[in-house]
Amino acid sequence: MVLDVLRLEEVVLVGHGTGVEVVARWAERNPARVMGLVLVNPVSGDAEAARVADLPDSELRPTIDRWLVTLLRDARPETKEKVLASVQVARVPAIRAMLVDAAANDLPASLSAYPGPVLILAAPDEPVPGPLRPGIEVRRLTGGSHWSPLDASDEVNAALREFLRPIDAASGRRRRSG
């Protein structure tokens, strides 16, 4: 595990899209090592992703390209260019695995098992999986697309700094008293 190699005992994990599932499951299984979670435009339990994952190879990329057009509707031109280019070089098995993961996992269940602070950042039109346990903060961003870290980086970074402030303060108190 990268955290062990880097000798990091406690971390704040940030995930985006289908990567949210990865960090949420890790936090669920290792709550003592996770000081907080920030989830940006989470994807979970997506039936459309399951349908697309099952398409034959000849239909997969054209379907994903059409799907991306809708997800990129409110994106900046630079974001559209970067995302569409990245999908063209992605390998089909990786795309299928990501889609299956997006369809199969239950983010609310993972989050209910993780007791720490959670912030969900969501673009204006992004769905947020639910129901969520009490105490999870959901903040709507003022603009952008599913790729908010690219489209609304200043707003995402400001929300991250605000979320980290009390965690940093608590961590500093633990170090001084330990």
Rg from Cα = 17 Å
Number of helices: 9
Q: Approximately what portion of the residues adopt beta-strand conformation?
A: 5-15%
End-to-end gap: 26 Å
Q: Spans with pLDDT under 50 lasting ≥5 residues?
A: none
Proportion in helices:
55-70%
Q: Let me know the number of strands.
A: 4
Which overall shape is indicated by the principal axes computed on the Cα atoms?
Answer: globular
Q: Mind describing the biggest β-sheet?
A: 4 strands, parallel
Q: What is the helix/strand order?
A: HEHEHHHHHEEHH
Kindly name the structural category. alpha/beta
How would you briefly describe this protein structure?
By secondary structure, this protein is an alpha/beta fold. It is built from nine helices and four strands, in the order αβαβαααααββαα. Strands 1-2-3-4 form a four-stranded parallel sheet, with helices on both faces.
